[in-house]
């Protein structure tokens, strides 16, 4: 299933990894990696992730195809004190140079959201927030107006505070909930929304991909939305170009080369591929574009959206 870290990834131009994670399980609280289990984890068994993952581990995994900068996205630190994760990452960045910038966590419908956002904003390398809103586990269960969802007025009041701090919003949601995201982006045009993991196109049937493309197109109609091309692994299968290059090209065709960016989702996606495999697959997918658009997809878009 695996190949060597740099296999097929040589000669890649300087690039930014717009989505990666670190954790130190010996000193920090990550319930999902320590004493809890995520039911129905999208890649299946994730026990291989229950180990420290730090800058030296990323350096090993990216040997021969290392990003010049990285965006660290919150890694499900225990929710009581999310600013503590930002403080730890700030120290890590000062000591090692990784990560370059941070997307932290704030529960947008929690009573202390203003205090939490202010705490994050005090960090010079903070760029945005990820909060996973309530979504439906299956397409047929998708409903509008659910408490804790992107339609929830209390949740939206928290979202409205992001603009005050100049923060972007990273959204992880399945494609059948992207109608809510389109409405959110429309109603808050001054907040940059960045969709994680290509809208989670896990269902690769003809009908599933058609639904995903339609949902992505509805979201792409809002000019303040961008997408990270990442998280394309399929449970129980190795990451292959045959599976994923068409999906990558569809996403870029829908959003345009100016609103898509490369991201690895490492080390989570180490469950399905080496870093080099993901890099090589993205390179193959974007080879149809001229060099200046390839540079945007690899580097310039992430630099712009995350103010690098």
CATH topology: TIM Barrel
Task: List the total number of helices.
Answer: 9
Structural class: alpha/beta
**Order of strands side by side in the largest beta sheet?**
1-2-3-4-5-6-7-8
Supply the CATH architecture. Alpha-Beta Barrel
Q: Determine Rg (CA atoms, Å).
A: 18 Å
Number of strands: 8
User: Could you say which overall geometry the principal axes of the C-alpha atoms support?
Assistant: globular
Helix content: 25-40%
Tell me the series of helices and strands, N- to C-terminal.
Answer: EHEHEHEHEHEHEHEHH
The termini sit apart by: 34 Å
Mean pLDDT score: 95
Top CATH class: Alpha Beta
- Contiguous runs where pLDDT drops below 50 for at least 5 residues: 1-10
CATH superfamily: Metal-dependent hydrolases
**Biggest beta sheet summary:** 8 strands, parallel
**What's the number of structural domains?**
1
Give the DSSP E fraction (strand runs of 2 or more residues).
5-15%
Domain Amidohydrolase-related: 16-308
Family: Belongs to the metallo-dependent hydrolases superfamily.
Organism: Cupriavidus taiwanensis (strain DSM 17343 / BCRC 17206 / CCUG 44338 / CIP 107171 / LMG 19424 / R1)
Pfam families: Amidohydro_2 (PF04909)
